Amino acid sequence: MATGTDIVNGGTVLPAAKSKVALITGITGQDGSYLTELLLGKGYEVHGLIRRSSNFNTQRINHIYIDPHNAHKARMKLHYADLTDASSLRRWIDIISPDEIYNLAAQSHVAVSFEIPDYTADVVATGSLRLLEALRSHITTTGRIHVKYYQAGSSEMFGSTPPPQSEDTPFHPRSPYAASKCAAHWYTVNYREAYGIFACNGILFNHESPRRGENFVTRKITRAVGRIKIGLQSKLFLGNLQASRDWGFAGDYVEAMWLMLQQEKPDDYVVATEESHTVEEFLEKAFGYVGLNWKDHVEIDKKYFRPAEVDNLKGDSTKARKVLGWKPKVGFEQLVKMMVDEDIELAKREKVLVDAGYMDAQQQP
Q1: Which of 198, 247, 286, 341 could pair covalently with 148 via S-S, beta carbons 3.0-4.6 A apart?
Q2: From 45, 100, 156, 208, the catalytic residue
Q3: Region 73-79: what's the mean pLDDT?
């Protein structure tokens, strides 16, 4: 879609430059919202695929949503589709004609993947294959060979392989989610090698933010810290506190995604801070930041232990730093404080509702 006005250069009227067009699956998620902000800031027209739900699940992008009737301002547009529905994927790729596709959609909760393994595999693994095949078919039909594809990988694919983990480290997945991500990774490599598609895998280590889902351990902790500090909660129930992860800021990591698709050749990259911290360390930083002792509030619940545990993930992002020129800007302690600050403010707003009788303060112990 052309933007701006025509340019007069030496008396010759030239057509305005066209914006790049990006298509994002999983646009309503943490990464999708940060990536959308990044791309809009770079002048892109952004299209997002969303699943139909009886409740709107667009909270993370509401602040950048503009009604499409306001055509001259609305550079982000949403469309109903699903990675389990191949026809919708092909239709929207043909209609939108994107220059870049970012596949961020997934059933991304590791523990939940043990409870719904079939669905996880269908969305994460076969869903990626459906999207790649839709892209291949689109390129074959239209000749638009310049379209670039990004596949969101995960450090969980390394599983029980000892750290540090790099692009050359063997995968040893320990969950249906991780195994499905491995399949998506190799589908992407296969379509790159078999059909010459510009397709990249970003193997991102854990990345968090105030927009992280509340059932992920980091956000579960910072939400509890906010509620405990404000007096709305007293206990936090967790599983394995010795699991160690390489935690970074999601806002930094989406820049690496974009950089991968700006290179001359497609490739696969590990994106990580190269620091590893345990869940217990995260607890110490989060509770300590507000003057609390986590041991006074945390209880272990065996139901939060996984059937197959991943003990230690720590990335080696040498390649991304050298080739992409990428490096994280937000450190571990800064990330924890950022999340706690946001969740204290959220707890304060909840307190207003509790005091006014609109919320039950006893929903959690």
Answers
A1: 198
A2: 156
A3: 89
